[in-house]
Amino acid sequence: MSDFQNESIWVSSDDLQGSKEFTETLHSEFQNLSIVDNIGSDNHDHSRRDFLKYLGFSVGAATIAAACETPARRALPYVTKPDSIVPGIANYYASSYVRGGDYCPILVKTREGRPIKIEGNRQNPFAKGGTSARVQAAVLDLYDSSRFQFPGSVTNNAVQESDWNTIDKAVIAKLNSGSTIRLISHTNISPSTKAAISLFKSKFPNTEWVQYDPVSCSAILMANEKNFGQRIIPGYRFDKADCIVSFGADFLATWISPIEYAAQYVQNRQIKDVKSAQMSRFFMVESHMSYTGSNADQRILIRPSEQGLAIAKLYNLVAASLGAEQISVSGKLANSKSESLLKSAADNLVSLSRAGKHSLIVSDSNNTAEQILINKLNSVLNNYGQTIDMANISFQRSGVDKDMLNLLGEMNSGKVQALFVLGDANPLFELPNGNDFKAAFGKVGLKVAMGTSPNETSLNCNYVAPTHHFLETWDDVQPKSGFYGIVQPTIDPLFKTRNFQHSLLKWAAVEGTDSADFYYNFIQNQCKASVFSNQNQYSSFQSFWDSTLHDGFSIRTSEISGRTGSFDLSGVAGSITKPSSSKLELKVYEPIGVGNGIHSNNPWLQELPDPVTRVVWDNYLHIPIKWNEAGKFEYLNNLDTDGDLVDLKANGIDSRIPIVRQFGMPDGTCAIALGYGRQLGGRGAVGVGKNMNICLKRDSDGNIQYFVTGIEVSNKVGKDERFASVQHHHTLGVRGKDQESNNEVINVDEKTMMTLGDGFQGSLTKRTILRDANLSNLQEKSQALKEERKKAKHLNEQTLYPDYSEVYNNGHHWGLSVDLNGCIGCGACQVACVAENNVPIVGKKEVNRHHEMTWMRIDRYYYGDVENPSVVYQPMMCQHCDNAPCENVCPVAATNHSAEGLNQMAYNRCVGTRYCANNCPYKVRRFNWFDYTTADLFPKNENNPLKGDLPFYADNLTRMVLNPDVTVRSRGVIEKCSMCVQRIQEGKLLAKRESRPLRDGDIKTACQTACPTGAIIFGDQNDPNSELNKRWNRDTNYFVLEEINVRSKVGYQMRITNKMESEV
Amino acid sequence: MSADGQKADQGLVDHQWQAIKTSLTSEVKPKIQGPIQWVRIHNLPDHAYFNHSQHVTAGKVACQQCHGKVENMEVVKQYAPLSMGWCINCHRQTEVKFKDNPFYNDYKKYHEEIKSGKRSKVTVEEIGGLECQKCHY
Q1: Which of A75-84, A265-274, A332-341, A829-838 has the highest mean pLDDT?
Q2: Which residue, among A919, A944, A917, A916, has the nearest Cα to A932 in the 3D structure?
Q3: Domain check: are A338 and A353 in the same one?
Q4: pLDDT of residue A952
Q5: Residues of B with CB below 8 A from A77's CB?
Q6: Nearest chain B CA: its distance from A848 CA (Å)
Q7: Model pLDDT, residue A755
Q8: Do A387 and A245 belong together in one domain?
Q9: Hey, how many other C-beta atoms are within 10 angstroms of the C-beta on A169?
Q10: β pairing state of A114-120 and A102-111
Q11: Does residue A136 sit within a domain?
């Protein structure tokens, strides 16, 4: 054990133990090289579910007729050209991303009238230009061919096409002013929608609107109602907290407003100067390795049912020191180390509080008593008005779980006559008692689905009245008080859809609903009445509206303020969750990609590896890795291979599911993601993984509890042959024990390279890949880094080859910087890269064969204590080496270097030897094994291994998302990160046309604009004042594999944690 | 332009549209015949990025240099081969507007060489105009 502790870095238990299979896996970079087998065999007669999982994106094949002479190509000019459209030039529109309560201010890039990319809106302080993977992927949903394309009636889960007149008549015929109507939706943050619904209510007084959230924050709302008299979510300020304690709240990934919180969180964690370094300390108390937990300074492991006890213990410890009332709880946490760590967390909080500083305690607990305790704890620590803002409150979650239970009761009693399901609400899938809802649906006379795409709920309704995608429509948003945003259309509606607000008011016979502009006018009037009237900057509404529309938002926030609450702790001790004595418990969490199923028809998100486990296209049971006294790992039921299938019994529901072994989980705890196992919907969603919503229980308040106690896990019952994890693909400098030479610890990757040669170059086993430090030893570590870099530089100078650096001193010399301390591993950059560069999606089977095509990947490494390791994420893309090993092995010079330092790839020149990929020390080159995008001109000429199933990007609707500035690569060529050369050229050309020097920041790569924390920066090395050079000159900067003299141009800044000294 | 702006300008647009309609119709042709289909003469090979403003605005290249004397052509025909070799050849010979455009200030070495008299001009090739990813992304 001690052998590995503190100095080693590993990616998995196989790597740490050096199993033979693992070493062998790494011997070949591309698995299953025998492509001939694949083409010839019928084994690859792929079912739609597997090979190239093309999603809800169905198929409209275009045939290309071959002609003997060059056909005359005709072009239709505009008779009157819209002055905003210049062919070949992109337009950007400020808008807002909204899905339920999730919100992000965005800019939509359109080309020739079609949206192709979403970027963050830097002017908006809400997220400071940051985005998330879901925001980046939203543009693809627009072109999802499984979307509802017309209104219609539903029979047998299929929609029969109809027209709006017929539907309107049918619905109106069933309504009268006394009808009992219920509206269901996710949390809605649009003021106009709220106004529209109250207008609807005035026509149908027996109407109620029930909102819920795909993953509930009900207990927070109820606790605040008790403590402050209002059902609200306060504004959290992670940037103002010197110490953060989170009980399970995954606030960097999924909890309430993660993009906003991520931007806040990194603000006081950036280290610019090692001598005056300061940062917040973050404790995560949790029961599985969550994404946010993986970023924590100190994780405290508890079982899911112990969360209430842990909160109470921390509360009592703090209250005892600060003289507040205590509550009586008994019992010990199962993990004894967690007890002492909670004590240290309490000491931290207390000493900060005594010093007049502030902290922030948050929890995802859905137990009202536990949230009251969290509120009280924050109040004892004086955090209200400092890190918790009661003036600028959030509206992003508003669902109280018992409301949906009441609705269910009403439906069952036959009281509800009409039910309208607004937006993407999908109670039949998202709620634990979805099946009860399905049964209750039968008792409602009229059910109308008003969403964008088919799901379990909408296909069980009578009618479908589809609404627009948010990129096609006008809307407004108010995510927090004082924040007003506009959603504006960036394309005409693709299908016969209509805003659900418009439909509702039409059925309510509201005046003006015959006009297509109705909802637009409605929003403007709302804005005039409630937003324009509260400002004094503009005197005319038109100028206010124009400026708001131009910026995409209008913000009038108040000063941070607290509020006095009444915290009654009587009864709290009795109401918190009792720790379970069962042998095994299951934590159920919302995954960062597909959410609770709402995004599961999006292939970009399905193929985004989970940041922690790095598995794609599935959910899987995380089982804990335990370390026994003999120095060996022990796994639950001896499940020692990722992808083994087991039978899981949770709350009486059986499912067969693959496992993945996971570090940093407490004993007796498993974890699994929600959002998979959709039954009805697009092709990308249906049949992927298992639905876990149905296993969940509610507490006495009706709140959904996201854990299950007393689960049973069987022994291995099979193997998922297509289990797709990118964990060991394209590895770089992974340590392992070499079975062939006395279990000597080697660099596995190097063994791969050197097997055919003379053996190892031993000194390279400690290559520069990751460098980390703790705040307490930062100065020593950065000094050591300096020494190391000096040594590398000396080594690199011992060369017989001439120095070409002079070439690069003239003009520009591009480079990137990645701050590992800012990077939280969210994957927004990876999806942005896919969107920007037309990177193919290949599907589960292909990922299983190491054929994923992503140009940038986010490597995840563990280090430190094997039982509760720290995690570091490392975005890895082409390093554009100035002495690139890939370039000099290419027999046809298809990859070569530009004078600006770019490692260029000329696809048409590539003959597919793949020498370059083999010679790349960073493993960032990708080979097109198949015609993933049907880019080849004459598909008939190919032996088509796809057997008629057309891949993603093959249908004309989906192809509308392609970036016309970037070549769609064909089969048989290598591709890789180009440092967004199309953006570089665009930036240079603009400066050239405007006759001015290029400014730092003119050019931003796609990954840079997507990043919610500003971790990635692009710039010019030759500009001494560039942000890039400022970062590169920091003492924490290093280059990956600097010692091998490839002269890479992506500088990484050390990962720095702020652990307590006792834990370093 | 926002739909809102369009709305505000609706009167103007209607007015302009009337004028266009009048000019495109007559007693003999009461209906607008639709746009005239253009036959594409200059067809650049696939997978190459070409930007006119780069050449016309920044490079000050005359239209006729690539398209021929279109003003004298009865029937327009392709004048230049538009092959990669032709592009490259021009990039080798053509001088960039080095001294007039502050964009090129970053090429300090060339400026020094011009100052010292070692160099009289800078060609497109010398600022990377022959490199693959100047046209192929």
Answers
A1: A829-838
A2: A944
A3: yes
A4: 65
A5: 35-36, 38
A6: 29
A7: 46
A8: yes
A9: 9
A10: antiparallel
A11: no
